Amino acid sequence: MATKHEQILKYIDSLSVGEKISVRRIAKEMKVSEGTAYRAIKEAENKGFVSTIERVGTIRIEQKKKENIEKLTYAEVVNVIDGHVLGGKAGLHKTLNKFVIGAMKLDAMMRYTGAGNLLIVGNRIDAHRQALEAGAAVLVTGGFDTEPSIIELADRLELPVISTSYDTFTVAAMINRAIYDQLIKKEVVLVEDILTPLEKTVCLSPQEKLERWYEKNFETGHGRFPVVDDQMKIHGILTSKDVAGYGRSVLIEKVMTKNPITVVGKTSVASAAQMMVWEGIEVLPVVDERQKLIGMISRQDVLKALQMIQKQPQVGEKLDDIVTGGFKESENDKNKPSPVYQYEVTPQMTNHLGTISYGVFTTILTEAANRFLRSLKKGELVIESMTIYFLKPVQMESVIEIKPNILEAGRKFGKMDIEVFHQGALVGKAMMMVQLMERS
């Protein structure tokens, strides 16, 4: 039977898109405490089908699909620009496909404005009316209001009219930045994108005997299974190491590995990879906020995802992409044991003193180590510890050379020394301990 929490989530999910939600209403409708209602609303917000907007309240919105993540809803625009809604609140859940800056004559402006657009304009009442009639929402800049007839039209058409104190070009830049951030989020592969779902996961019960493990091992060829109760809460993991030396009639709960490490669906694959390497584990249970199992990921799943990330085209450029994009390999002597990388320090990569910043320097060293290990087919790198020494300041527009060198290398770990030179002089170095995630 579903818990009260699950019943509330199901109820919220059944509400019409655009409907207003409150803690008091949910508590009254579902006959639960306001604390229980509040927690359920917050989880619905985390799942993306509820949005809270200042001065408007909490509303049911259409849950965005992963492939549509780069598009913003009008509700998200309100939050980005710190605006307030003058009318058309029922349409806040809708998604805008583009925005238009209204800095031209009215007729010319309307040629570019259509359904699903957001017209960014000042105190031009005729433009507000014609944009709404064309199916577009309106963002009024400069702190201006609009006429009551426009608000009435916006409410009738369910198209938001939003006001903000910022100027037209500032809000355009803010919305652009928000869309760009969404594109970057789209690139980040999460555990929920690669997991084996619950319906395809073989689970065992703590009260079953080890005979059950042998049956499932023979059927599937796998040796690691999650152990869950009737409510699908994770209690342990049972592996071939756990069952060794025990008779088949022993209860699973007696030999399973209890309190296993778990991750939630929103964990990045990179974080999951680091966890698996450091803890030396092959599989990770994926749970929801109530510790209920929703699927499993394996080390092979993580490796495939990491390799896919490297191959996919870049859509939104992150700071790390800007830093690592400047790498060039020097034409060094083939007899040298390791490559030499060249890098030019641009003004954006410096601190207030005009010298290379610590964060950028760390990224450069990490990227050099990664490139070197990949060239040796060593797999993915996870840094365990790194000690950096700044010997001389590196000015902007300097061209530095980075020389990585392996001091020790095992199958799963390595010790590296990285030296950085400018005009032949040593300006910095690092000692790095890394763990390696071998490609399957």
UniProtKB/TrEMBL annotation:
Keywords: CBS domain
Top-level taxon of the source organism: Bacteria
Pfam families per the UniProt record, alphabetical: 4HBT, CBS, DRTGG
CBS domain boundaries: 195-254, 256-314
Classification via InterPro entries: CBS_dom, CBS_dom_sf, Diverse_CBS-Domain, DRTGG, HotDog_dom_sf, Ser_kin/Pase_Hpr-like_N_sf, Thioestr_dom, WH-like_DNA-bd_sf
Alphabetized PROSITE patterns for the sequence: CBS
Name this protein carries in UniProt: CBS domain-containing protein
